[in-house]
UniProtKB/TrEMBL annotation:
PANTHER family assigned: UPF0056 MEMBRANE PROTEIN YHCE
Keywords, ordered alphabetically: Cell membrane, Membrane, Transmembrane, Transmembrane helix
UniProt-annotated location(s): Cell membrane
Natural source organism: Caulobacter vibrioides (Caulobacter crescentus)
Keyword Transferase among record annotations: no
Cytoplasm among keywords: no
A GO-annotated cellular component: plasma membrane
Pfam families: MarC (PF01914)
Protein's name according to its UniProt entry: UPF0056 membrane protein
Amino acid sequence: MTEANLAVNFFVALFALIDPIGNVPLFAAATLGAAAAGRRMVAVYIGLFMAAFLVFFYFTGVGLLAFFGISMPAFRIAGGIILFILGLDMVRDDFTTMFADAAEGIEGQTPRAYAKQRFERLIVPFAMPLLIGPGSISTVIIYAAEAKDFGAAGMGIGVGVIAAVSLVTVLTFWASPLISKLLGRIGMSIVVRVLGLILCALAVQFVLVGVADATRGLIKNDAKAPYAESHK
């Protein structure tokens, strides 16, 4: 795997898991009735929280695995199973009704006061575990292990990917009124399900790699790394 492949694969996996486009209806429902400035500030708070939390696990996750005596193949398999379950839920279910509560107590508040109050209520369950859940944490730790082969450059790539996904999430939430209007309910449902399907496929790949690393000859190399030859 090259550095470019690492960056692309990590971004796709994390983007599909966090699913900012699919979460637009949830964010819109959670900030219903808010002024544009207040809504944007809530999105910034969520993006900063997400970036800080994921970067923390990016640098400490491998050490935590070593402390608990968990091998990387075992963590890959466990993470793949979690990702598959989450992806399956995205394919089958409609999450928009979970956050259909109207914003309350927003009249007379400044954008900063409103954003602080709303963010405190959205930490759970919107920021965690919907955006940052076991799946995204597992993905960050797995790719942190991959990045160690590239040294400081690889770790920098990982931080850049996390920052990029966080920024895209903030910008997507800023554009939530426009995206919701353009895609409509059917379009949003299609986006959620397509990203869920991609996530399921990535999850199966995690399991294949984990089993291949933990065994000898059980998984063929072309199944573990199907596009490795094309990058040589």
